[in-house]
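Changelog entry: the AB hydrolase-1 domain-containing protein record was regenerated in this release. Current contents:
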Amino acid sequence: MLLITEPHNSISLILSSQQFSINMSSSELLHFFVFFLSTAQALLRYLLACLFQLNRASVLFFVVDAVFSVYFWFCGLTSLTVDLDDRTTMHFWTSTHRRFDKPNLVMVHGYGGDARWQFLYQVGFLSRKFNLYVPDLLFFGKSYSNRPDRTEEFQAGCLVEGLKRLGVDRFSAYSISYGGYVAYRMAEICPKEMMEKLVIVSSGVGWSDEVKIEQIKKIGRDPKELLLPTNPDDLRLLVKLSVYKGKPLKWLPDFFLQEFINVMGNNHRKEKLELLEHLLSKKADADLPILTQETLLIWGDKDNVFPVYLAHQLQRHLGPKSRVEIIKDTGHAANIESPDAVNALITSFVLGHS
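Regenerated C-alpha coordinates:
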Protein backbone atom coordinates (compact mmCIF):
# COMPACT_ATOMS: atom_id res chain seq x y z
CA MET A 1 0.00 0.00 0.00
CA LEU A 2 2.78 2.33 0.92
CA LEU A 3 4.46 1.75 -2.38
CA ILE A 4 1.25 2.58 -4.14
CA THR A 5 0.05 5.43 -1.91
CA GLU A 6 3.28 7.42 -1.90
CA PRO A 7 3.49 7.66 -5.68
CA HIS A 8 -0.19 8.62 -5.71
CA ASN A 9 0.38 11.38 -3.18
CA SER A 10 3.45 12.54 -5.06
CA ILE A 11 1.54 12.61 -8.27
CA SER A 12 -1.26 14.58 -6.57
CA LEU A 13 1.23 17.09 -5.22
CA ILE A 14 2.89 17.41 -8.61
CA LEU A 15 -0.45 17.87 -10.37
CA SER A 16 -1.54 20.46 -7.83
CA SER A 17 1.75 22.30 -8.25
CA GLN A 18 1.46 22.21 -12.06
CA GLN A 19 -2.17 23.39 -11.89
CA PHE A 20 -1.14 26.30 -9.68
CA SER A 21 1.72 27.10 -12.02
CA ILE A 22 -0.61 27.02 -15.03
CA ASN A 23 -3.14 29.18 -13.21
CA MET A 24 -0.47 31.72 -12.39
CA SER A 25 0.74 31.81 -16.02
CA SER A 26 -2.79 32.22 -17.36
CA SER A 27 -3.45 35.05 -14.94
CA GLU A 28 -0.27 36.88 -15.93
CA LEU A 29 -1.06 36.34 -19.59
CA LEU A 30 -4.57 37.66 -19.10
CA HIS A 31 -3.30 40.77 -17.33
CA PHE A 32 -0.76 41.38 -20.09
CA PHE A 33 -3.41 40.95 -22.80
CA VAL A 34 -5.82 43.34 -21.02
CA PHE A 35 -3.03 45.90 -20.61
CA PHE A 36 -2.07 45.61 -24.30
CA LEU A 37 -5.68 45.87 -25.47
CA SER A 38 -6.36 48.89 -23.26
CA THR A 39 -3.24 50.66 -24.47
CA ALA A 40 -4.04 49.95 -28.12
CA GLN A 41 -7.62 51.13 -27.64
CA ALA A 42 -6.45 54.34 -25.99
CA LEU A 43 -3.97 55.02 -28.79
CA LEU A 44 -6.58 54.31 -31.45
CA ARG A 45 -9.08 56.59 -29.73
CA TYR A 46 -6.46 59.34 -29.56
CA LEU A 47 -5.51 58.96 -33.24
CA LEU A 48 -9.16 58.97 -34.33
CA ALA A 49 -9.84 62.06 -32.25
CA CYS A 50 -6.89 63.86 -33.82
CA LEU A 51 -7.88 62.70 -37.26
CA PHE A 52 -11.46 63.86 -36.79
CA GLN A 53 -10.60 67.21 -35.25
CA LEU A 54 -7.64 68.19 -37.39
CA ASN A 55 -7.93 66.34 -40.67
CA ARG A 56 -11.60 65.48 -41.11
CA ALA A 57 -11.80 67.68 -44.25
CA SER A 58 -8.82 65.93 -45.78
CA VAL A 59 -10.25 62.52 -44.99
CA LEU A 60 -13.66 63.40 -46.46
CA PHE A 61 -12.16 64.99 -49.55
CA PHE A 62 -9.83 62.11 -50.31
CA VAL A 63 -12.63 59.60 -49.78
CA VAL A 64 -14.77 61.47 -52.33
CA ASP A 65 -11.78 61.80 -54.67
CA ALA A 66 -11.10 58.07 -54.40
CA VAL A 67 -14.76 57.29 -55.10
CA PHE A 68 -14.51 59.33 -58.32
CA SER A 69 -11.48 57.29 -59.38
CA VAL A 70 -13.31 54.05 -58.61
CA TYR A 71 -16.27 55.28 -60.67
CA PHE A 72 -13.99 56.00 -63.65
CA TRP A 73 -12.58 52.49 -63.25
CA PHE A 74 -16.13 51.11 -63.10
CA CYS A 75 -16.82 52.92 -66.42
CA GLY A 76 -13.97 50.96 -68.00
CA LEU A 77 -11.22 53.59 -67.72
CA THR A 78 -7.63 53.11 -66.62
CA SER A 79 -5.20 55.68 -65.22
CA LEU A 80 -2.04 56.08 -67.33
CA THR A 81 0.92 58.47 -67.15
CA VAL A 82 2.96 59.32 -70.25
CA ASP A 83 6.41 60.92 -70.06
CA LEU A 84 6.77 63.13 -73.14
CA ASP A 85 10.37 63.93 -72.23
CA ASP A 86 12.42 64.43 -69.09
CA ARG A 87 10.54 67.67 -68.31
CA THR A 88 6.89 67.00 -69.17
CA THR A 89 4.45 64.33 -67.98
CA MET A 90 0.82 63.92 -68.99
CA HIS A 91 -1.79 61.85 -67.20
CA PHE A 92 -4.72 60.21 -69.01
CA TRP A 93 -7.79 58.18 -68.16
CA THR A 94 -8.16 55.81 -71.10
CA SER A 95 -10.54 53.01 -72.07
CA THR A 96 -9.11 49.80 -70.63
CA HIS A 97 -10.24 47.67 -73.56
CA ARG A 98 -10.08 49.61 -76.81
CA ARG A 99 -12.66 48.42 -79.32
CA PHE A 100 -12.03 49.00 -83.00
CA ASP A 101 -15.75 49.26 -83.73
CA LYS A 102 -15.92 52.40 -81.58
CA PRO A 103 -14.51 55.81 -82.57
CA ASN A 104 -11.98 57.52 -80.28
CA LEU A 105 -13.11 60.58 -78.33
CA VAL A 106 -10.71 62.91 -76.49
CA MET A 107 -12.33 64.90 -73.66
CA VAL A 108 -10.52 68.17 -72.81
CA HIS A 109 -11.52 69.79 -69.51
CA GLY A 110 -11.55 73.44 -68.49
CA TYR A 111 -10.46 75.29 -65.34
CA GLY A 112 -11.47 73.97 -61.94
CA GLY A 113 -10.68 70.46 -60.74
CA ASP A 114 -9.06 67.75 -62.80
CA ALA A 115 -10.82 65.73 -65.52
CA ARG A 116 -12.64 63.43 -63.08
CA TRP A 117 -14.41 66.27 -61.28
CA GLN A 118 -15.52 67.92 -64.54
CA PHE A 119 -16.62 64.88 -66.54
CA LEU A 120 -18.19 62.85 -63.75
CA TYR A 121 -21.69 63.09 -65.27
CA GLN A 122 -20.57 62.14 -68.77
CA VAL A 123 -18.06 59.29 -68.77
CA GLY A 124 -20.67 56.68 -67.89
CA PHE A 125 -22.71 57.34 -71.02
CA LEU A 126 -19.91 58.29 -73.40
CA SER A 127 -17.76 55.28 -72.47
CA ARG A 128 -20.46 53.05 -73.96
CA LYS A 129 -20.26 54.87 -77.30
CA PHE A 130 -16.55 55.71 -77.63
CA ASN A 131 -13.04 54.71 -76.72
CA LEU A 132 -12.35 57.55 -74.29
CA TYR A 133 -9.09 59.44 -73.74
CA VAL A 134 -9.49 61.89 -70.88
CA PRO A 135 -6.30 63.85 -70.12
CA ASP A 136 -5.44 66.14 -67.26
CA LEU A 137 -4.13 69.31 -68.90
CA LEU A 138 -0.73 70.48 -67.74
CA PHE A 139 -0.72 71.69 -64.11
CA PHE A 140 -4.04 69.99 -63.42
CA GLY A 141 -4.32 66.59 -61.78
CA LYS A 142 -1.17 64.57 -62.36
CA SER A 143 0.07 66.37 -65.48
CA TYR A 144 3.07 68.66 -65.12
CA SER A 145 5.89 70.35 -66.98
CA ASN A 146 8.80 72.42 -65.76
CA ARG A 147 9.05 74.15 -69.13
CA PRO A 148 8.16 77.87 -69.01
CA ASP A 149 5.61 77.85 -71.87
CA ARG A 150 2.05 78.69 -70.73
CA THR A 151 0.30 78.99 -74.09
CA GLU A 152 -2.66 76.99 -75.37
CA GLU A 153 -0.43 75.96 -78.29
CA PHE A 154 1.98 74.29 -75.85
CA GLN A 155 -0.87 72.50 -74.09
CA ALA A 156 -2.23 71.36 -77.46
CA GLY A 157 1.15 70.13 -78.69
CA CYS A 158 1.75 68.13 -75.51
CA LEU A 159 -1.72 66.60 -75.68
CA VAL A 160 -1.32 65.56 -79.32
CA GLU A 161 2.08 64.06 -78.57
CA GLY A 162 0.65 62.18 -75.60
CA LEU A 163 -2.09 60.71 -77.80
CA LYS A 164 0.51 59.60 -80.34
CA ARG A 165 2.44 57.84 -77.56
CA LEU A 166 -0.77 56.01 -76.68
CA GLY A 167 -1.18 54.86 -80.27
CA VAL A 168 -4.16 57.12 -81.07
CA ASP A 169 -3.95 58.09 -84.74
CA ARG A 170 -7.61 59.06 -85.34
CA PHE A 171 -9.95 60.81 -82.94
CA SER A 172 -12.57 63.48 -82.38
CA ALA A 173 -12.35 65.97 -79.53
CA TYR A 174 -14.89 67.34 -77.07
CA SER A 175 -13.78 70.37 -75.06
CA ILE A 176 -15.24 72.77 -72.52
CA SER A 177 -14.33 76.38 -71.60
CA TYR A 178 -10.52 76.71 -71.32
CA GLY A 179 -10.26 73.29 -72.93
CA GLY A 180 -11.88 74.83 -76.01
CA TYR A 181 -8.86 77.07 -76.53
CA VAL A 182 -6.59 74.02 -76.32
CA ALA A 183 -8.73 71.82 -78.58
CA TYR A 184 -8.97 74.58 -81.20
CA ARG A 185 -5.17 74.66 -81.42
CA MET A 186 -5.12 70.85 -81.58
CA ALA A 187 -7.40 71.05 -84.61
CA GLU A 188 -5.07 73.61 -86.14
CA ILE A 189 -1.95 71.44 -85.87
CA CYS A 190 -3.62 68.09 -86.63
CA PRO A 191 -4.53 67.07 -90.17
CA LYS A 192 -8.19 66.18 -90.69
CA GLU A 193 -7.17 62.54 -91.14
CA MET A 194 -6.02 62.53 -87.50
CA MET A 195 -8.53 64.84 -85.78
CA GLU A 196 -11.85 64.22 -87.49
CA LYS A 197 -14.40 66.35 -85.62
CA LEU A 198 -14.40 68.98 -82.89
CA VAL A 199 -16.96 69.87 -80.23
CA ILE A 200 -16.53 73.11 -78.27
CA VAL A 201 -18.77 73.89 -75.29
CA SER A 202 -18.97 77.42 -73.86
CA SER A 203 -15.54 78.78 -74.75
CA GLY A 204 -14.26 82.28 -75.53
CA VAL A 205 -12.32 81.25 -78.61
CA GLY A 206 -12.34 84.16 -81.06
CA TRP A 207 -13.60 86.84 -78.70
CA SER A 208 -12.31 90.35 -79.30
CA ASP A 209 -10.32 92.48 -76.87
CA GLU A 210 -13.35 94.73 -76.41
CA VAL A 211 -15.64 91.81 -75.52
CA LYS A 212 -13.06 90.46 -73.10
CA ILE A 213 -12.80 93.78 -71.27
CA GLU A 214 -16.58 94.16 -71.26
CA GLN A 215 -17.10 90.71 -69.74
CA ILE A 216 -14.50 91.26 -67.05
CA LYS A 217 -16.19 94.53 -66.08
CA LYS A 218 -19.59 92.83 -66.09
CA ILE A 219 -18.41 90.11 -63.72
CA GLY A 220 -17.04 92.79 -61.42
CA ARG A 221 -14.19 90.72 -60.03
CA ASP A 222 -10.65 89.90 -61.01
CA PRO A 223 -11.01 86.67 -63.05
CA LYS A 224 -7.88 85.29 -61.42
CA GLU A 225 -9.48 85.56 -57.98
CA LEU A 226 -12.58 83.74 -59.16
CA LEU A 227 -10.92 81.02 -61.23
CA LEU A 228 -8.33 80.40 -58.52
CA PRO A 229 -10.38 80.97 -55.35
CA THR A 230 -8.72 81.00 -51.95
CA ASN A 231 -11.81 80.63 -49.76
CA PRO A 232 -15.23 78.93 -49.84
CA ASP A 233 -17.11 82.18 -50.52
CA ASP A 234 -15.17 82.83 -53.72
CA LEU A 235 -15.65 79.20 -54.80
CA ARG A 236 -19.41 79.51 -54.26
CA LEU A 237 -19.42 82.73 -56.27
CA LEU A 238 -17.58 81.01 -59.12
CA VAL A 239 -20.10 78.18 -59.17
CA LYS A 240 -23.01 80.65 -58.97
CA LEU A 241 -21.59 82.44 -62.01
CA SER A 242 -21.19 79.15 -63.92
CA VAL A 243 -24.46 77.42 -63.03
CA TYR A 244 -27.90 78.79 -63.85
CA LYS A 245 -30.13 76.22 -62.17
CA GLY A 246 -29.90 75.25 -58.52
CA LYS A 247 -27.12 75.63 -55.98
CA PRO A 248 -24.72 72.67 -56.28
CA LEU A 249 -22.61 73.69 -53.27
CA LYS A 250 -25.52 74.53 -50.97
CA TRP A 251 -25.16 71.50 -48.73
CA LEU A 252 -21.37 71.23 -48.75
CA PRO A 253 -19.70 72.54 -45.57
CA ASP A 254 -17.00 75.20 -45.71
CA PHE A 255 -14.30 72.86 -44.43
CA PHE A 256 -14.84 70.51 -47.39
CA LEU A 257 -14.79 73.37 -49.93
CA GLN A 258 -11.63 74.73 -48.35
CA GLU A 259 -9.99 71.33 -48.65
CA PHE A 260 -11.02 71.20 -52.32
CA ILE A 261 -9.28 74.57 -52.78
CA ASN A 262 -6.21 73.41 -50.86
CA VAL A 263 -5.81 70.23 -52.90
CA MET A 264 -7.17 71.14 -56.35
CA GLY A 265 -6.71 74.90 -56.53
CA ASN A 266 -3.38 75.21 -54.76
CA ASN A 267 -1.81 72.29 -56.59
CA HIS A 268 0.59 74.04 -59.02
CA ARG A 269 -1.16 77.31 -58.20
CA LYS A 270 1.69 79.44 -59.53
CA GLU A 271 1.61 77.75 -62.93
CA LYS A 272 -2.19 77.93 -63.14
CA LEU A 273 -2.00 81.64 -62.40
CA GLU A 274 0.50 82.06 -65.22
CA LEU A 275 -1.85 80.22 -67.59
CA LEU A 276 -4.60 82.68 -66.69
CA GLU A 277 -2.36 85.72 -67.00
CA HIS A 278 -1.33 84.62 -70.47
CA LEU A 279 -4.94 84.00 -71.54
CA LEU A 280 -6.18 87.35 -70.20
CA SER A 281 -3.28 89.48 -71.42
CA LYS A 282 -2.89 88.10 -74.95
CA LYS A 283 -4.38 90.13 -77.78
CA ALA A 284 -7.19 88.69 -79.86
CA ASP A 285 -5.90 86.60 -82.75
CA ALA A 286 -6.64 88.62 -85.87
CA ASP A 287 -5.64 85.59 -87.97
CA LEU A 288 -7.58 82.94 -86.09
CA PRO A 289 -7.37 79.93 -88.41
CA ILE A 290 -10.46 78.54 -90.11
CA LEU A 291 -10.50 74.86 -89.22
CA THR A 292 -10.83 72.05 -91.73
CA GLN A 293 -12.68 69.83 -89.23
CA GLU A 294 -16.44 69.77 -88.85
CA THR A 295 -17.17 71.68 -85.66
CA LEU A 296 -20.13 71.66 -83.29
CA LEU A 297 -20.56 74.60 -80.90
CA ILE A 298 -22.72 73.91 -77.83
CA TRP A 299 -23.81 76.77 -75.57
CA GLY A 300 -26.14 77.33 -72.66
CA ASP A 301 -28.52 80.19 -73.35
CA LYS A 302 -27.88 81.57 -69.83
CA ASP A 303 -24.07 81.53 -70.04
CA ASN A 304 -22.79 84.46 -67.95
CA VAL A 305 -19.11 83.75 -68.62
CA PHE A 306 -19.06 83.58 -72.42
CA PRO A 307 -22.33 85.08 -73.76
CA VAL A 308 -24.20 83.02 -76.33
CA TYR A 309 -23.56 85.51 -79.13
CA LEU A 310 -19.92 84.38 -79.07
CA ALA A 311 -21.09 80.98 -80.32
CA HIS A 312 -22.74 82.55 -83.36
CA GLN A 313 -19.74 84.79 -83.93
CA LEU A 314 -17.38 81.80 -83.96
CA GLN A 315 -19.72 79.87 -86.22
CA ARG A 316 -19.69 82.69 -88.77
CA HIS A 317 -15.90 82.65 -88.67
CA LEU A 318 -15.69 78.89 -89.19
CA GLY A 319 -18.23 78.81 -91.99
CA PRO A 320 -20.46 76.02 -93.34
CA LYS A 321 -18.55 73.16 -91.69
CA SER A 322 -19.75 74.36 -88.30
CA ARG A 323 -23.07 74.66 -86.51
CA VAL A 324 -24.45 75.93 -83.20
CA GLU A 325 -26.69 74.13 -80.72
CA ILE A 326 -28.20 76.12 -77.84
CA ILE A 327 -29.40 74.36 -74.66
CA LYS A 328 -32.24 76.11 -72.89
CA ASP A 329 -32.09 77.17 -69.24
CA THR A 330 -28.43 76.25 -68.96
CA GLY A 331 -25.47 78.32 -67.84
CA HIS A 332 -21.75 78.11 -68.52
CA ALA A 333 -21.28 74.67 -66.96
CA ALA A 334 -23.46 72.78 -69.44
CA ASN A 335 -21.51 69.59 -68.71
CA ILE A 336 -22.82 69.72 -65.12
CA GLU A 337 -26.26 71.30 -65.60
CA SER A 338 -27.37 69.51 -68.76
CA PRO A 339 -25.07 66.49 -69.23
CA ASP A 340 -27.74 64.37 -70.95
CA ALA A 341 -28.35 67.03 -73.61
CA VAL A 342 -24.60 67.55 -74.14
CA ASN A 343 -23.99 63.79 -74.36
CA ALA A 344 -26.77 63.36 -76.93
CA LEU A 345 -25.44 66.20 -79.08
CA ILE A 346 -21.86 64.90 -78.95
CA THR A 347 -22.92 61.37 -79.81
CA SER A 348 -25.14 62.30 -82.74
CA PHE A 349 -22.54 64.70 -84.15
CA VAL A 350 -19.47 62.47 -83.87
CA LEU A 351 -21.27 59.32 -84.98
CA GLY A 352 -22.89 61.15 -87.89
CA HIS A 353 -26.50 60.66 -86.83
CA SER A 354 -29.14 63.23 -87.76
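The chain is about 55% helix and 15% strand.
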